[in-house]
Backbone:
């Protein structure tokens, strides 16, 4: 028998077999395996924690001025990141600024995203005049650079936290409308929609039950990346003297105030900028990973 | 071909016309444009006089027709500060913006496309990983902050360059590099990923099977395929560059359209603001139109339609 | 007869997001001079991977030949440097791909793409290259070749494109032509034309051809010898007559039974139950055992390769019929 069997040893190695984990578990295990995505996730989590609970850990009152302790460099006088031109603690202001930035980013994305989604779905689903008007508005609005539009709208509406949020929404909803509309158009062409039409499902039924759920992924991906864009736009506008007004600390207006002291206080122009970069980097890394992961599952 | 060009041309004209409409409504966003055109502490009586001289007391449609008919003749009114033609002021600062945007554009293309192609060629090597890392970082750094850092290091500390202005040729360096970096990061990233997409295609396998080397495939075959989407992005990037230029100009006190708009916003000089954002929107639309023509010129499939 | 190609114990490993898989698990076969070898099997059985591995066209970085060797005209080309492999590709060995619609570059003219192998592997000047291209386009039955060279792929029909692909593959008169499902994506009438063209090329030149297909009708028409692949292994090898008259492996029998026959029109078509398992969920032992109508206890152990009189078969059913013991390969 032994000389009959010409056993090749190829079968010997067992192949790795995937056990079936729950969807959420595999989502997280994929996340941990991906170094950059996981880094982004950790940064985003930390930022959210600082945004919510940061005021508990600020070493000083971020608004309190100490005229005797002006422009102290980092690590002096008990100030980890130094003080600004009014003797306020930079670390405390950066921490409180996190909350301002994140609030603006998240709130504007949620509202602009909701408005854009509704209009995009209606335009993509019903087509006709609504679609034509919408697309022309989108064309026009996209022909103005985003940050410039936010800046001008904000200048017209007036500075301040509420108006910067409003400006970002006015300038930012079109991106969502455009992406959602094209997604809806793509889904409409899918065979399962034809099948629904053929079996007599109503227009609203199709929209609510079949189109909306399929929009979830692209909207989440877009929204996650737009948060970073909106945060940077707010910082830019505040840096230019509009947007969030001092003494309320925001990273953008801290840089604006700091740039007048560029000759003698380097920390005032670097530290808030680093905060912006870390935030944008964290959100982008996580958003990119999310896009790759969710697209893969589609 | 010509039908496509005409269609796109008409579309562009419509967008430009609608952009004018947009500008008209933009200044009415706050409700009362008169208050916008005056200092906040203007006395009540003066407001009404001003409302009348600017024609804001007329019915909306009259104002609209009036605005459009003047605007298409290039008349956005006179600057409230200098009393010069608003569009004239914007146009006089336009060469400076063009100079900055074009030099940054050329710089970013010359640097970014080879890096993107090489990164795709050396996929997953140290070079590639470093390149990808830097592009991710580059995209997260806002240009206004980068400009600020450059001023600090190269102007304040090292005294290599002036902190701003447009006086000597050397004053161009910092704003150009600042503006180029953001766009560079995007172009590298996009070029790389498009090249990798194209390299997966069946027709690349075919040409490999014919014995053509990977390097030649990259530089000749795949690059031409990837060029279509890359051109589209680059064209759109000119728009982004324009936006970046506005901010960069302000950081470096570069006397271009962006600086002009910013100054006008500070002075509440809205005729100049309107002329400025209209000009930028116009350029942006023209760039898009040109990009579409270019795109169709390189893509035989579109050309023949 | 001289062997053009001698593949022994070839194993290929793919790196995926979820670990590595082996789409080829020890494949050995030979191609003789002037012979047409058919490789059949369902999708996902390793047919295309085999041909890509031979051509050295496996996706870079993600896959590698982890064991075994490929001898081409006596030369070991398994781990040949890319530069040296390039000299063979399109010259001594070439390949026709399945999808004529996507296998030609949309932004280059037909002439440009056809000139590449000639530029790489011959010293012909531009004019001579053009003459050669037009001559070869005529050979593959393309009308108005002098106009076609100026055109872009999207201006041609699927059948025409496949003729161009064949032209591209044979333009340097290779010794080995691999045709990977060259007719699958085409209309039936066009399929027949392409098969006739390949037959003509086969008769006019002395090219060895590896013909990969899942269409057994085509195999009967063009091949001299057949190997049947399943989950990355060869399960049966026989000359074409033996294969159709006396298939041994239950998988081969299943494939033949699921082929419609002229004289049995009224009977329902047989099918093989189940589907090809994915590479990371292979059954232990014989990988066909979960679909095999004749499976028995032994099938939980990997089956032996049995050499019968006129064919080779990897199945426990024939373990006792071995001809003259192991041939010691």
Residues:
């Amino acid at each position: 028998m032994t000389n009959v069997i010409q056993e090749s040893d190829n079968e010997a190695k067992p192949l790795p077999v995937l056990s079936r984990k729950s969807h959420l578990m595999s989502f997280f295990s994929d996340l941990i395996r991906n170094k950059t995505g996981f880094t982004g996730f950790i940064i985003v989590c930390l930022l959210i924690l600082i945004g919510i609970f940061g005021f508990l850990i600020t070493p000083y009152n971020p608004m309190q001025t100490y005229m005797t302790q002006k422009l102290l460099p980092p690590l002096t006088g008990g100030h980890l990141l130094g003080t600004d031109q009014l003797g306020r603690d930079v670390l405390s202001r950066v921490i409180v600024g996190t909350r301002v930035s994140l609030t603006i980013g998240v709130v504007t994305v949620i509202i602009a995203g909701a408005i854009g989604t509704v209009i995009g779905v209606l335009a993509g689903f019903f087509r006709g005049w609504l679609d034509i008007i919408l697309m022309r508005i989108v064309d026009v609005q996209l022909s103005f650079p985003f940050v410039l539009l936010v800046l001008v709208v904000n200048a017209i509406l007036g500075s301040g936290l509420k108006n910067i949020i409003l400006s970002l929404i006015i300038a930012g909803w079109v991106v969502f409308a455009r992406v959602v509309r094209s997604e809806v158009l793509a889904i409409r062409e899918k065979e399962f929609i034809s099948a629904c039409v053929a079996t007599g499902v109503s227009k609203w039924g199709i929209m609510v039950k079949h189109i909306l759920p399929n929009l979830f992924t692209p909207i989440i991906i877009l929204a996650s990346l737009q948060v970073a864009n909106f945060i940077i736009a707010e910082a830019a506008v505040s840096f230019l003297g509009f947007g969030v007004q001092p003494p309320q600390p925001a990273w953008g207006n801290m840089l604006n105030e700091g740039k007048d002291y560029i000759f003698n206080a380097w920390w005032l122009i670097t530290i808030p900028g680093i905060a912006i970069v870390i935030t944008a980097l964290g959100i982008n890394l996580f958003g990119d990973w999310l896009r790759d992961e969710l697209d893969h599952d589609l | 071909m010509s039908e496509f060009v005409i269609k796109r041309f008409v579309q562009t004209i419509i967008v430009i016309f609608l952009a004018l409409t947009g500008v008209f409504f933009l200044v009415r966003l706050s409700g009362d444009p008169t208050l916008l055109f005056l200092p906040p502490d203007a006395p009540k009586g003066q407001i009404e006089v001003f409302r009348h001289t600017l024609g804001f007391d007329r019915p909306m449609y009259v104002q609209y027709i009036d605005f459009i008919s003047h605007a298409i003749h290039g008349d956005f009114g006179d600057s409230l500060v200098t009393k010069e033609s608003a569009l004239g002021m914007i146009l006089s600062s336009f060469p400076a913006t063009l100079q900055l945007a074009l030099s940054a554009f050329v710089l970013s293309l010359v640097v970014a496309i080879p890096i993107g192609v090489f990164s795709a060629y050396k996929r997953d090597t140290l070079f590639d990983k470093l390149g990808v890392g830097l592009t991710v970082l580059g995209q997260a750094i806002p240009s206004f902050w980068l400009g600020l850092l450059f001023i600090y290091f190269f102007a304040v500390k090292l005294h290599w360059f002036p902190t701003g202005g447009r006086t000597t040729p050397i004053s161009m360096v910092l704003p150009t590099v600042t503006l180029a970096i953001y766009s560079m990061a995007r172009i590298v990233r996009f070029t790389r990923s498009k090249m990798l997409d194209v390299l997966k295609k069946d027709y690349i396998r075919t040409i490999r099977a014919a014995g053509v080397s990977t390097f030649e495939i990259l530089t000749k075959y795949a690059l031409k395929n990837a060029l279509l989407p890359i051109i589209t992005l680059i064209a759109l990037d000119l728009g982004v560059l324009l936006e970046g230029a506005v901010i960069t100009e302000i950081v470096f006190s570069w006397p271009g359209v962006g600086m002009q708009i910013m100054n006008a916003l500070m002075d509440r000089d809205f005729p100049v603001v309107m002329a400025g954002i209209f000009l930028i929107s116009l350029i942006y639309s023209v760039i898009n139109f040109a990009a579409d023509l270019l795109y169709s010129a390189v893509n035989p499939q579109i050309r023949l339609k | 007869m001289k062997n053009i190609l001698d593949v022994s114990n070839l194993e290929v490993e793919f790196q995926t997001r979820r670990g590595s898989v082996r789409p080829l698990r020890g494949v050995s076969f030979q191609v003789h001079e002037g012979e047409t070898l058919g490789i059949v099997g369902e999708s996902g059985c390793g047919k295309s991977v085999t041909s890509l591995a031979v051509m050295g066209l496996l996706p870079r970085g993600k896959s590698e030949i982890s064991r075994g060797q490929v001898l081409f005209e006596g030369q070991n080309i398994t781990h040949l440097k890319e530069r040296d492999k390039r000299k063979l590709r399109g010259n001594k060995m070439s390949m026709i791909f399945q999808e004529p619609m996507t296998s030609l570059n949309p932004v280059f003219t037909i002439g440009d793409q056809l000139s590449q192998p000639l530029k790489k592997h011959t010293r012909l000047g531009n004019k001579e290259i053009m003459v050669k291209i037009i001559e070869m386009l005529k050979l593959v039955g393309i009308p108005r070749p002098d106009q076609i060279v100026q055109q872009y792929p999207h201006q041609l029909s699927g059948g025409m494109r496949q003729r161009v692909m064949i032209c591209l593959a044979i333009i340097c008169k290779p010794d080995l032509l691999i045709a990977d499902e060259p007719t699958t994506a085409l209309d039936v009438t066009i399929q027949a034309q392409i098969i006739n063209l390949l037959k003509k090329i086969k008769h006019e030149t002395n090219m060895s051809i590896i013909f990969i297909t899942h269409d057994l009708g085509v195999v009967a028409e063009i091949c001299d010898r057949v190997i049947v692949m399943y989950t990355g292994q060869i399960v049966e090898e026989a000359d074409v007559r033996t294969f159709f008259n006396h298939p041994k492996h239950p998988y081969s029998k299943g494939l033949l039974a699921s082929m419609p026959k002229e004289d049995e029109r009224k009977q329902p078509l047989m099918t093989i139950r189940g589907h090809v398992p994915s590479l990371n969920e292979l059954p232990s032992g014989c990988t066909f055992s979960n679909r095999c109508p004749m499976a028995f206890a032994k099938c939980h152990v990997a089956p032996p390769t049995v050499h019968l009189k006129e064919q080779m078969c990897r199945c426990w059913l024939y373990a006792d019929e071995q001809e003259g013991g192991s041939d010691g390969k």
